[in-house]
Amino acid sequence: MKPLSIKKWTFTLVALKILTLSVFLLSLSLGGKLIWPFGTLSPEDHNILWISRLPRVFLALMTGYALGTSGTAFQGLLQNSLADPYILGVSSGAALGSILGLAFHLPFEMIPVLSFASAFGAMILVYTLASKNKQVTPHTLLLTGVILNAFLFAFILLLNGLVSFEQSQKIIFLLMGNIGTESFDKLLLVTAFVFVGSLFLTREGYALNLLSSGAESAAASGIDVPRHRKRIFFFASLMIGAVVPLAGLVGFIGLFVPHITRFIFGPDHRLVIPASGWIGAMVLMLCDTLARSALIWTSYQTELPVGAITPLLGAPFFLFLLKRGLK
Amino acid sequence: MTLKIKDISYLYPHSSQEALKDISFEISSGNIFGILGPNGAGKTTLLKILTGLFKPSHGEVFLEENNLHSLSSRERAKYMAYVPQQEEIFLPFSTEQIVLMGRAPYLGLMGFESEQDHEIAQQSMKETDIWNLRHRSLHELSGGEKQRVFIARALAQNTPFLLLDEPTAHLDLRYQMEILKLIVSLNKKIIMTLHDINLASLFCQKIIFLKEGHLIGMGNPAEMITQENIQKIYETKVHIYKKENASLCFPNFS
After folding, report:
1. pLDDT tens readout for residues B85-100
2. Is the residue at A8 inside a domain?
3. In B, which residues are within 8 Å of A214 by CB distance?
4. Distance of CA A115 to CAs A93, A244, A253, A320, Å?
5. Cβ neighbours of A222 in B, within 8 Å
């Protein structure tokens, strides 16, 4: 693999953005009814396309981007090929925050903030609990994540028992992972969070290259390791905190998208951080399109939650990695 | 460039016993400096303090007039390059990518390397004889080759000092000699920890002995490697043989 040049970086990212736009338009057209977004539309098609599908496809894009990028950042920083926001408990942290917001009837603007705060808290907690003498081993980290996940889930279930039926319905959707139609002001807020997070995480790409080759070498090369670690935790949690209140716990995207991206583009995080975002966005838009259209030819007039699709792809992949040897 | 170590002590967190106690010495003349001592003597701790990775609990390290530990990590990395003991690199970076990482202290925000950075990396790969391995992933290389890659990365950092932690550990005899010959051929001030007293005797111009965190002595290998010193420091009886300028020691079996 040749070293990365600015030219290759720019070219690849432009190409990925064009590709993402194509997948976006494709996802917009597909579904219960095939609608081509260019051309004159009947009022009914217009409603389906712009009011019901557009926000949904857009949310899939944002969520996929956030999960892909933050998964890459976690794997590089923790030098662990099985790390992802879901497994580490960051997503559950975000879910708990969102559900608390829901249970206490907070206005929506507050919920991503609360969700981010508890995602960041969960990340710091897992890292601190897993570290011993400033060393974190992959096994301990994953086990700590699993345990925290179980703990947070218990909390969520407890809350679920206390709230109204309507709220409980929402909680179930959140836990399943579900991309639904959301209002544009909610999406705007989420986009702002994801945008800021992606900007700062992309800036951390070079530091992540050094960090993924060992904290000690990174420090000796002039990297302020604790500062970069905190920044990466912070901005990855920011992105997760933003998307979880709307999309819920969509698993495995943050695990396998980084692997696919590194497989295609090599290990350089300056490129892989943004690239895994765009690939994650494409994968999740396609998964959601599948979730929307999988049952249309059957007599069930319903949709699958996207949270049921991603593990179908992700779980075998996880097992494959586990078999191949945990690093 | 002179490195002055003044009254250094180091206490690890959650430990009650100091790993280093009141260490003072100066590195001025001589290019190859060895840190020796038994396991747990504090060799690596001392080396990590000199790289700036650890901040001493007490005492200071001066680089000419500057306190090493009040420099920013980026500034410090322009003076001190560090080759850790064999380390695992998680992702399959190519040799060239790893060596280019040595340019980190000189790069801008996004870390894109200039033409000049590429030239410096190329030169250090040629100096360490790994130019033909540049497209290979580090995961495919042998122990000796990996060690060369890490040395090349440190060279690309373009520092007056090069610090190495046990550069010959895990290497067979041929690679041990290759690596040490390479190290002494570099035009740098070298500070390294070594387990092997005889290799230190052959390659170092000055050595210090540490035991249980204390500095036992400092001098050239011929005057430091004596029967009394070795017995006191390693608690092992040895014979000393003089060969050319080197003092070589062998354990006494009887």
Report:
1. 877 788 889 999 999 9
2. no
3. 84, 87-89
4. 7, 8, 19, 32
5. 72-78, 104-105
**Beta pairing, strands B246-251 & B20-27:** unpaired
User: Which structure tokens are listed for B155?
Assistant: 């060279």
pLDDT tens for residues A152-186?
Answer: 999 999 998 888 888 898 898 889 888 888 888 89
β-sheet bridge partners, residue A239: none
- B96 contacts chain A (CB < 8 A): yes
The total of other beta-carbon atoms located within 10 Å of residue A174's CB is: 23
**Residue B112 contacts A, CB cutoff 8 Å:** yes
Q: Is residue A268 part of a domain?
A: yes
Closest residue, chain A, to B15 (C-alpha): A133
Number of domain units in chain A: 1
Q: Which of residues 187-216 of A touch B (CB under 8 A)?
A: 203, 205-207, 209-210, 212-214, 216
CA distances from B16 to A47, A134, B13, B24, B27 (A): 71, 17, 8, 22, 30
- Among B61, B57, B77, smallest CA distance to B69 is for B61
- Does the distance separating the beta carbons of A210 and B104 come in below 8 Å? yes
**Average confidence (pLDDT) over B210-229:** 91
Question: How far away is chain B from the Cα of A116, in angstroms, using its nearest Cα?
Answer: 26
Nearest to A88 by CA among A310, A305, A240: A240
Query: Rounded to whole angstroms, what are the CA distances from B241 to A173, B230, B244, B247, B251?
Result: 79, 13, 10, 6, 11
3-state SS assignment for residue B7: strand
Q: What residues make up the domain containing A67?
A: 55-326
* pLDDT tens digits for range B200-212: 999 999 999 999 9
The mean per-residue pLDDT over the stretch B30-36 comes to 91
CB B93 within 8 A of CB A267: yes
In a domain, A7, yes or no: no
Mind telling me how many Å the CA of A285 is from chain B's nearest CA?
28
Query: Is the CB of residue B211 less than 8 Å from the CB of residue B37?
Result: yes
CA atoms within 13 A on the CB side of B151: 32
- Selecting from B13, B93, B105 the residue whose C-beta is nearest the C-beta of A213 gives B93
Alpha carbon distance, N-terminus to C-terminus of chain B: 46
Q: Which residues of chain A register pLDDT less than 70?
A: 1, 299-301, 325-327
Q: Which sign, positive or negative, has the C-alpha torsion A41, A47, A52, A56?
A: positive
**CA–CA min distance B146, chain A (Å):** 13
- A255's CB contacts (< 8 A; 6+ apart) are A71, A82, A84, A86, A87, A314, A317, A318
Quote the pTM value: 0.91
Residue A6 counted as domain residue? no
8 Å CB contact of A206 and B107: yes
By three-state DSSP, how is residue B143 classified? helix
CATH at residue A73 = 1.10.3470.10
* Cross-chain residue pair B92–A267, CB shorter than 8 Å: yes
Residues A66-103: b if buried by 16+ CB within 10 A, e if exposed: bbbbbbbbbbbbbbbbbbbbbbbbbbbbbbbbbbbbbb
